[in-house]
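Deliverable D2.4 — example input (structure tokens):
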């Protein structure tokens, strides 16, 4: 794959395998082919060769530690990286690792799992970008939502809907009729002087805005007024999911705090150190080493097998054309 899809020469592909992929595969207890696949996927995203190695290593570590399918992890991290570099920024392995650290820390501290948060990101990562939020702050939304009982995929779709609704609000308040009136009433109930003020607050501190918005919903004292406000903002489709987050505002506040706390931690490093102590991991390392040894034998035997195959094909062709009878 590195030769076919990565644009490498035969010698360069072999060097990548022998000097990086094979020893790294043994250290991580995974297959050399997986690492090379992740490396190729990274280069397809425009990540430079040096960064592709870091991407592949991180993908392998979190896939193993979280017990999430390797392809799912590489696809999700690839999407996140595309968002992080969408405005021309260069690939930064530390930024991608920060997202993984936050995911790990939230899963360890709240009633959710890495698998749920990965699933949330597959559907909701774009909403963070729309609102100008960091991916870490977006994960806090997903962690709170899934911890409160919302399904992971629905949490991502809810996040996407909330983002679109907030972006639309300045336009909604200008509409005539019942919808415009409800939008203006909602803005006042949430304590904003206008939709423009609300939008300025979001732009001023995108990461803090959404937890604050949920808190404002939770402080609408009259239960019927609160339900009407939520129903208008979310529609019937997301009334239950959004309502759970409003009722469980403390869980969201905790998630937002944890996402900030994760910035100073190496959560992935710690969980990986624990993962390496597992007996199953040691066996995977043995397996990876053995497969690499077989691969070395293959380098010697493969040319011989190719020569034998060519000889057989020539003999077969000669036999079909009656050459042996002459």
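Example output (designed residues):
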């Amino acid at each position: 794959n590195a030769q076919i899809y990565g644009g490498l020469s035969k010698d360069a592909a072999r060097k990548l395998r022998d000097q990086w992929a094979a020893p790294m595969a043994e250290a991580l207890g995974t297959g050399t082919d997986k690492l090379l696949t992740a490396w190729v996927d990274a280069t397809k995203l425009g990540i430079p060769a040096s960064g592709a190695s870091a991407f592949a290593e991180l993908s392998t570590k979190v896939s193993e530690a979280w017990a999430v399918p390797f392809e799912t992890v590489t696809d999700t991290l690839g999407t996140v990286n595309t968002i992080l570099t969408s405005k021309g920024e260069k690939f930064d392995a530390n930024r991608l690792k920060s997202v993984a650290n936050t995911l790990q820390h939230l899963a360890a501290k709240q009633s959710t799992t890495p698998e749920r948060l990965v699933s949330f990101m597959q559907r909701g990562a774009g909403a963070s970008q729309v609102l100008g939020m960091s991916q870490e702050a977006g994960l806090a939304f997903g962690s709170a939502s899934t911890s409160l009982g919302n399904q992971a995929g629905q949490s991502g779709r809810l996040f996407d809907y909330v983002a679109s609704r907030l972006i639309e609000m300045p336009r909604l308040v200008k509409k005539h009729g019942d919808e415009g009136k409800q939008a203006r009433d909602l803005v006042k109930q949430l304590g904003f002087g206008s939709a423009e003020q609300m939008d300025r607050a979001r732009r001023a501190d995108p990461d803090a805005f959404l937890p604050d918005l949920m808190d404002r919903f939770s402080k609408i004292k009259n239960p019927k007024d609160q339900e009407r406000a939520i129903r208008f903002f979310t529609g019937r489709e997301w009334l239950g999911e959004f309502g759970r987050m409003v009722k469980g505002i403390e869980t969201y506040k905790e998630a937002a705090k944890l996402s900030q706390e994760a910035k100073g931690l190496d959560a992935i490093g710690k969980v990986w150190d624990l993962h390496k102590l597992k007996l199953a991991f040691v066996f995977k390392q043995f397996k990876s080493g053995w497969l690499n040894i077989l691969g070395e034998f293959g380098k010697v035997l493969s040319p011989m097998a190719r020569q034998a195959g060519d000889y057989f094909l020539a003999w077969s062709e000669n036999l079909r054309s009656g050459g042996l009878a002459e």
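The chain has 16 helices and no strands.
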